Amino acid sequence: MGEPMKAWKASDGEWVEIVYADTRSRARVRGSGLLDAEYIDTTARRAPEFDNMAPKGPSRQQLFEQFGWGFECECGRIAERASGGRYLAGRFRCDTCAAPAQPPGAEP
Fold first, then answer.
1. Does the pLDDT value for residue 1 go beyond 60?
2. Roughly how many angstroms between the first and final C-alpha of the chain, as a whole number?
3. Is 75 exposed, middle or buried (0-12, 13-18, 19+ CB in 10 A)?
4. Which of 33, 32, 34 is nearest to 43 (CA)?
């Protein structure tokens, strides 16, 4: 039986995906496919903190809540837990979209 797969953070310079591969080159190939990027534009850095989550990897909700990653809100802003963003009903919400709606006539 081969060695366990290693976790890598594959990035196109803007977005990041966790991928599992035995080498950096294979991680870049997998990452470029997930990121819809060219291999040459994709980097891969070891992410040993995710090794024990192979082969499936962490969920996006885990990355958001436990590891502090940011994700795009439907309004286009980045939802980050540290700045008041939330994961609600299966979607990431920025601090503005996650705020409860004010009743009409109420002061903010």
1. no
2. 61
3. exposed
4. 32
